[in-house]
Amino acid sequence: MDQTRRKIAVVFLGPPGAGKGTQAKVVAGHCRVPHISSGDLLRDQVARGTELGLKAKSIMGRGELVPDELVCDMVAWRLRQPDTEPGFILDGFPRTAAQAGWLDAFLEHEFFDNSHTGKVLPFVIQIEVDYNNLLRRLTGRRTCPAGHIYNIYLQPPRVDEACDVDGLKLVIRNDDREEVIRERLAAYEQQTKPVADYYWSKGRLVAVNGDLPVEEVTAQINKVIEDHCAVATDSKL
Ligand code: AP5
Questions:
Q1: Pocket flag, ligand 1, residue 168 (CB < 6 Å)
Q2: C-beta separation of 214 from 172 below 8 A
Q3: Whole-structure pTM value
């Protein structure tokens, strides 16, 4: 690995359907860091029927947030895997004030040890999308079991109900039902918006316009990351 490369620690914040997963997959590839989605990690636990999965299943099915301590333990485990050495993109975490405080402390103690010269302070990219667009994105979303994301209105696959990449049958996420979507959006307003306000007040949040086409949102995000890394290099953070 390139020892001179700086660590990239980025959090993608935004309401359900904003495009966090869509963008994180592309940007993580570009930056050569893992994409860590708390929602994907939880869905994997549910699919495997683990103790955490059994606890999380009904909570996620109602569109509520899984308790902080369960999610923080899971994310800690993931962040300790060796592939996060060059950095990571976190998608969907943190989404409560308690998770945000926990993440700062965790990164300070375990991730950015003082011996590492390539330190870049973690920062947050907020993807902003109009409410009606969010509803359309969520009700039209289809995903392939391998994680590729489509939308029957906005980003349809070439062949109906089949993934362009691997041909697998596309499915509707269990929590993309209209009554659950409203709960998820309400949870975002009540519990996650204050997290964005906190990062904004600390000068650690940059907002991008998520209403634009996928490629244009990606370009905005890549520019934000490049600018941030350049500033961090100049100030020898
Ligand atoms: P999670 O999986 O994190 O879901 P979410 O935050 O609700 O976000 P989504 O995955 O729905 O949307 P996204 O922003 O990734 O959008 P996407 O790229 O798919 O969480 C699920 C549940 O797990 C939570 O409700 C909670 O219960 C639990 N959970 C997870 N993390 C937790 C935590 N930290 N604490 C507690 N509980 C937690 O795009 C959406 C659609 O739009 C797609 O169809 C896509 O094709 C389309 N699209 C994307 N971008 C564009 C664009 N620019 N133009 C047109 N269409 C677009």
A1: no
A2: no
A3: 0.92
Selecting among 7, 20, 43, 142, the annotated active-site residue is 20
Q: Nearest-5° angle of CA 27, CA 211, CA 26?
A: 15
Question: What pLDDT, in 10s, does the model give residues 163-194?
Answer: 999 999 999 999 999 999 999 999 999 999 99
- DSSP label at 83? G
Three-state secondary-structure class, residue 143: strand
- H or E stretch at 110: none
Task: Give DSSP secondary structure letters for 13-80.
Answer: E--TTSSHHHHHHHHHHHHT--EEEHHHHHHHHHHHT-HHHHHHHHHHHTTPPPPHHHHHHHHHHHHT
Complete edge-to-edge strand list for the sheet that includes strand 123-128: 35-37, 87-91, 8-13, 123-128, 205-209
For ligand 1, is residue 78 a contact (CB within 6 Å)?
no
Q: How many CB atoms lie within 10 A of CB 169?
A: 10
Q: Where are the alpha helices (DSSP H) in 117-202?
A: 131-139, 178-187, 193-201
Pocket test for ligand 1, best of 154, 173, 174, 221 (most atoms within 8 A of CB): 154
Torsion of CA 30, 199, 191, 188, to 10 degrees: -40
